[in-house]
Specification:
The chain has 586 residues and is an alpha/beta fold. It is globular, with a radius of gyration of 24 Å.
Length: 586
Amino acid sequence: MVRPTIIHKSPAQLRVPPNLTKLDAERSRFSWAAARAELTELPGGGLNIAHNAVTRHARGPGRDHVAFRFLSGDGVRELTYGELESLTNRFANVLGGLGVGRGDAVYVLAGRIPELYLAVLGSLKIGTPVSPLFAAFGPDPIATRINLGSGTVLVTTTSLYLKKVARIRDRVPSLRHVLVVPDEPDEPLPPGTSDLPALLAAASDDVAVVPTRPDDLALLHFTSGTTGTPKGAMHVHEAALTHWVTGRYALDLHPDDVFWCTADPGWVTGTSYGIIAPLLHGVTSIVDEADFDSERWYRILSEQHVTVWYTAPTAIRMLMKAGPAPALARTRPDLRLIASVGEPLNPEAVWWGQEVLGLPIHDNWWQTETGGIMIANTPASDIKPGSMGRPLPGVEAAVVQRSDVGLTFLPDATEGELALRKGWPSMFRGYLNEPDRYARCFSGDWYLTGDLVERDADGYFWFVGRADDVIKSAGHLIGPFEVESVLMEHPAVAEAGVIGKPDEMAGEVVKAFVSLKQGFVADDALRLDILGHARRKLGAAVAPKEIAFLEALPRTRSGKIMRRLLKARELGLPEGDTSTMEGGAS
């Protein structure tokens, strides 16, 4: 099947008129100062994320609108904006009663239960920075992160405390309070902890406004490098402006939308777009407490009338691997936009969305450090499958080459490092306790992302790989994503990860690791067939020289294939920090 290189979109084709119809015109007229006027200032001119996400709606006509719909094995629980206001106020007063406020830090270690969301928003209301952690983290990663941020309060569940926290409690001296949510009614409280539901029930639902400034610390997100301890990226209350703008332009949120972000809040996407952005727009968010299951996900999309769905390439590939039958078994008449983030989305996945789900999947790009979406395939714009899209209003992006004397700005169709001009509100304001490491991320007015890209003549950006992922083979610079995308086009391949393997003659050769779709058998015949497919598509200089079959590829919980880990295991090197890996240390 021959597919065009562009999926043409126009506002007239869309059921709901999009918020952004002419990207270039909007970029020309846009200003962050004008966007600031869309949010409510605190008395005296302050800015607070939770005030705008919750209180602003609870005090207006949106008070009775559903903010969150939690899906669990026990059924469905809804919280309106008015109820969310009351409960987050109660949590803020629980902290106040413990003597916790500015200068402290709250950590949350829990599944996607209501109390996680109350803790994040309630902490922000009184100016206490908050850091959600993956519930799948093991004891050592938990201790490392709490110590890095000098955490004062931990919100968790009884089972997670007993399994993971109790054994490292004496290693986190800053931790003064552990607030637990019982897994079962009337279960005994672990020693040294407090019953959060009881504290909430006893607290007042009226809280004094804390005059947070736009540049006050609000969120602490950890991101792992290839070596060393995790980096704590610090974000401020002003980040709400980026969350609001990107929710409007990239995710096209409208007041009556039912929005589902599948990301866990332990990942920056799950906080920025699973909590903050949809609340800023006053929409209803679906929160599914269960793990991935293709049939369950299709049921949620159908039965919950989801209109905008934000998910990860890993999830999309898992749905592809399950085959079209579960997708075709249910209708999704309300779904109008699917967006993806976490790693580049292969062209095959974009087309799979169009052909199986009836909608193309809109890839976008950002990082923990940027705090919000920077580059996107917007709903009314043409899609170039495999492209990250174009910079959103308020974002200036360039392709550069670093040197000792500064930056060289590169022309179109030239590979270089993606750089963003400083000034967007959700830009991280530092790495926790690492000012030198933070300073090295910038050259003059430009933040250097570490991602290698190309920009085409139409202004679309194309991901090549991380700066340390690029394969140098016999003089060729080979981007892993390009090779992985071609491998994904083979009908047997569910996922692909590519590394450079040292070679005496060529310097490096390309080695690919693939997992297969159901119904295919890993054997030499299939290996040769996939190699032949890649050679036909890419040419002998770029195609993999070796292919290994794996049941599953190692991924971070945010969905990125860990090429670094594939390479370390292939070469017998130290694996480094694996705390963000799916099924990591426990």
